[in-house]
Each structure stands twice: as C-alpha cells, then as structure tokens.
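Entry for 4'-deoxy-4'-aminopyridoxal-5'-phosphate complex. Fields follow.
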Amino acid sequence: MIKVTTSPTIRLDSQVKALQAAGHTIINLTVGELDFETPKPVLTAVAQALQANHNKYTTPQGLPSLRQAITQYLFKQHGLSYTPDQVIVTNGAKQALYSAFQVLLHPGDEVLVPMPAWVSYGEQIHLAGGQVVPIQLDAIAQSITERTTVLVLNYPNNPTGAVYSPSQLAILAKLAEQHHLWVVSDEIYERIIYPGTTFQSFGQLYPSRTIIVNGVSKSGAMTGWRVGYAAGPDEIITAMTALQSHLCGNVNNIAQIAAQAALQLDDSIWQTFMQQLLERRTTIMNWMKQQPQLQCIPPQGAFYCWLNIQGVTADSEEFCERLLHRWQVALVPGKYFGQDGYVRLSFAHSLTDITLALQRISQCVDSYDIL
Ligand code: PMP
Ligand code: GLU
C-alpha cells in the first residue's frame, strides 16, 4: 500500500474541533480559514443558478464563463494575458498543485522547495514520484542538479507571510530559465498584501514555463466551496485537463458559478476584509513588542504570524501541546512546515479570539520561567 500521511494542519484542526464538540472552549488559531461570511453577491448568483437547474456535468477544464472571468481577473490584478484555454478549474488550489506535480514529474525528478514550506507540497510531490529538495533561497543555485525539474514558489508565503521582492523574483526567473526549470508558483494569498509591499506574479516574469496556482478559498473567504485554478502553458493545462477527466470529471457546477461571482466582486468588499486583517495584524505586532522572548518578522502578506519561540524552547510541538492543554489555545508547530523552534498563528480569526489568545500565549511563555 502507498504511504501517505494526513495534512498536519487539517489533522490538528480536526482534533481541536473534536475537543470543542466535546465541550472544551478552545481558541483555534490553527487553520488558515477566514472567518468572514461568503459575500452576498456570491450567494445571490448561487441561488439563481440553483433555480436555473444547473445540475449537469461541466467540461473537465471548467465552465468557459468562469475561465473567462479568471483570465479577466488575472489581467486586471497582475497584467497577465492568459486565454481561457490556458486555465483549468480545480477542486481548490490543492488539486491544482496535485495535478501540476502529476503531469510535470517523472520518477526521481528533484523538486526545489524553499523552506519553511506549506505542509502539502512534500506529500504531493512524493505521490507524483518526485523527490523534495528543501532549499534556502540564497543557496538555490547549489541545489540544482541534472535531475532538477521543478521549482516551487509560494508568496505571500504560508507560514512566514514573506513576499519576494521584484529583484529577488528577477534572479529566480533568470535561474529558472538558465536551468530550464518548470516553476509552480502558488499565489493563493496574492490578494492579501499589507502596506509597503508589492506583489508581482511569477507569470509576468517567466510565462513560458510557469504554472500559476490560485483560487477563491482565501480571496473570497470561500474555503468550503473548493474552487481553485491553474493558469499556464497550453501543453500543461491540456495534460492537467486530461488527468481531471479521469480523476473527478469536473468541479461542482454550482461551486464554479459561485467562484465566478466571487471573481467579479466589487473591490470594496475586499477592502473591508483587508481592513479587518490589517487591524488584527497590528494588534499582534503591538503585542509582540511586549514579548522579549518571542520574535516575529511582520508578515508582508497572507494571515499568518510565524513566531520564533527559540527564546522559550526549541520544541514547537511541546510548546503547542502545553498551550492547548493548559491555556486552550491551538497553534501549529513549526516542525510541520520543516522548521522547529517556530509556531504558526493564523489571524484569519476574530479579533476577540486573537486578543484573548495573545494573553494566554504570554502566560504560556511565562510558565517556562517558572519551571
Ligand atoms: N497553497 C497554500 C500555500 C495554502 O495555504 C493553501 C490553503 N489550504 C492551499 C494552497 C490550498 O488552498 P485551497 O483551499 O484552494 O485548496
Ligand atoms: N492552507 C490552510 C492552512 O495552512 C488550510 C489547511 C490545509 O489545507 O492544509 O492552514
């Protein structure tokens, strides 16, 4: 039987939900899932689609109108020029990544993954027969061998919130081109950018061999609708579409209509989301100033704080267990992202929960001095 482990973020979130269901009051800052409601125009579009009996298969690649909306969105946001044929709609960004690795990799191919990295890349690459090569960005050139075929990029980054600058991106694009690498650019947090940072899509720099991955989970606060997409060169999208035709047929028809409405939303809804995220981020950064034993580089994007807890302990799992069992706050151990001595705090949750959680994290940190 094939060896595959459960996503640790999802496992942890499920454990916390089970504890909550058993009556424990736990503040759950594990999962990266925005607490905002699905925007009203999306619900209206869905209600209309239900009335109009949208109950049939769609083409495996996705509804043409949705793919058109995706190309318009990518052009408006990032000046990218894709045709609807160069886009595939998937069950979340997760499936876009999975399918991209399946069609790109041959057994034994090496895939460069900058660390720390989101929890699913490793398993997805293994499932496609590839080998993960964990890298530090400044040492990337030394890690390239004749077996290297893919570079994975993820910015804004989960878990650090870091965003590559245009000059870093230019170096990466040059390197990828020199070594004829495919680049899987996971841009799912592309809309969550804080003041002072600019986002540039990798598709602008290296379109011939970049597969952009995105979706509405984060930008539409629509995690449960499970709509993601990939945009890239024709041959890759064609192969991913063929795979999709055997794998799941297509993404749920109604969910595709919901995603289309989300992509066409007025910017003002997004601005309201961003104001709230900014307020949460500021609250955490102000709290950090009173925490001499903790360090955190302010996230430039996404909704995670990557807390360096090495002033307290090097063992992120022990820290999270202590915090959960004694202070009823759940965070994700950095170990799951390939870097112990850190924990990830998701601020996709309410300010009330965050404020209470911060007080308790301080108490947990203090408990190490007492012992
Ligand atoms: N990439 C990253 C970096 C993520 O954090 C997530 C969140 N689950 C995904 C991909 C997958 O998102 P989706 O919900 O669209 O599958
Ligand atoms: N991306 C989110 C997270 O990292 C959702 C959970 C998952 O898909 O792993 O928390």
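NOTE: The pocket of glutamic acid (ligand 2) is lined by residues 7, 9-10, 31-32, 118-120, 158 (CB under 6 Å).
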